[in-house]
Design brief:
The chain is 49% helix and 11% strand. By secondary structure, it is of the alpha/beta class. It is globular. Bound molecules: adenosine-5'-triphosphate and magnesium ion.
């Protein structure tokens, strides 16, 4: 199949999950078990994913060579939705030199002495690189919003903390993303949308399998009690920050193979739109290359 045709098909799959306008977005309209009617066995899905990762590697190579754009991939999700596995599989083909992964956990004391975007801004990808945020500044309007005692630790002057704080933060995030896009950072944001039922199943698996015990955390089970609160704040975050230049992808996450394929497809499709190409050299440089070739040929 020709490249254009494949891209067309990819676009059809990705389109329904890409949110570029927040206003009409409702999380309840998205099914975590959706696979677009596709039913692939493990081997078929792995084959397709491999083609996606190879394509991604080609795009990354040009991104790196061109050294103009950078790509920021933001991953947000409830626990056990598959962030780690998706990052591992989708990025498996890319050159590690052009890729930077940051996993954001609880903030440090130093982080808390700064504005809320500070620690994330320090980790933004350089030109030509792909930056991956495994959790991100969105935690500042997710976990911090669900557990307001975390906000109290952030040492803000009291008069700056009002009921409007979440609206303000979402506004700040949207502007931060506008700014970054204008600086040449393409931002793609992935919400891996897992169902509460599937999360329970995955926690049970972690308990059943000794090789998965290290992944199990009692606090993750505790967080399940706040499921509805999380869904509410995720919805608000997506509504306030989805835009054409920094879209959200609400990725069904109950089937891991589908999650990975869709994420790979979305990245490839977005990178294709950048029209990346290898830098061409000017006439002077071409002459220099010819001289060098001649010199190497003369060597004994
Ligand atoms: P995994 O469990 O797969 O290793 P993880 O991303 O869940 O990955 P953990 O160390 O389990 O990593 O948890 C990180 C915790 O840090 C999460 O509970 C998250 O909500 C919390 N966290 C992230 N950012 C912030 C923040 N800005 N303020 C407070 N807590 C945060
Ligand atoms: Mg965790």
């Amino acid at each position: 199949m020709a490249r254009e045709e494949i891209l067309d098909r990819i676009e059809k799959y990705v389109d329904p999950f890409r949110i570029t306008k927040g206003k009409s977005f409702r999380l309840k309209n998205f099914d975590p078990g959706d696979t677009c009617g596709l039913r692939l066995d493990k081997g078929e899905a792995a084959d397709l994913l491999q083609r996606g990762t190879e394509w991604l590697a080609e795009e990354q190579d040009m991104l790196y060579a061109q050294d103009r754009w950078s790509l920021l991939l933001v991953f947000q999700a409830m626990d056990a939705a598959g962030k780690d596995g998706t990052i591992k599989h989708v990025m498996s083909g890319v050159n590690p030199q052009g890729c930077q992964v940051f996993s954001f956990k609880q903030p440090s004391r130093e982080d808390l002495d700064h504005d809320f975007l500070w620690r994330y801004a320090k980790c933004l990808p350089e030109r030509g690189r792909i930056g991956i945020f495994n959790r991100s500044y969105y935690e500042e309007v997710l976990v911090v919003r669900v557990h307001e005692h975390i906000l109290q630790r952030q040492k803000l002057p009291p008069r700056l903390v009002s009921e409007r704080i979440w609206k303000e933060r979402l506004f700040d995030i949207a502007h931060f993303e506008d700014y970054l896009t204008r600086q040449g950072t393409m931002i793609l944001k992935f919400f891996l949308h897992v169902s509460r039922k599937e999360q329970k199943k995955r926690f049970m698996e972690r308990l059943d399998r000794p090789d998965k015990h290290w992944k199990f955390s009692a606090s993750d089970v505790h967080e399940r009690k706040f499921w509805d609160d999380y869904m509410h704040v995720f919805e608000e975050a997506i509504r306030a920050t989805a835009s054409k230049h920094a879209p959200w992808y609400v990725v069904p996450a109950d089937n891991k193979w589908f999650t990975r394929l869709l994420v790979a497809a979305a990245i490839v499709e977005a990178m294709e739109k950048l029209d990346l190409e290898y830098p061409t050299v000017d006439a002077e440089k071409k002459k220099e290359l010819q001289t060098m070739r001649a010199a190497l040929n003369r060597e004994k």
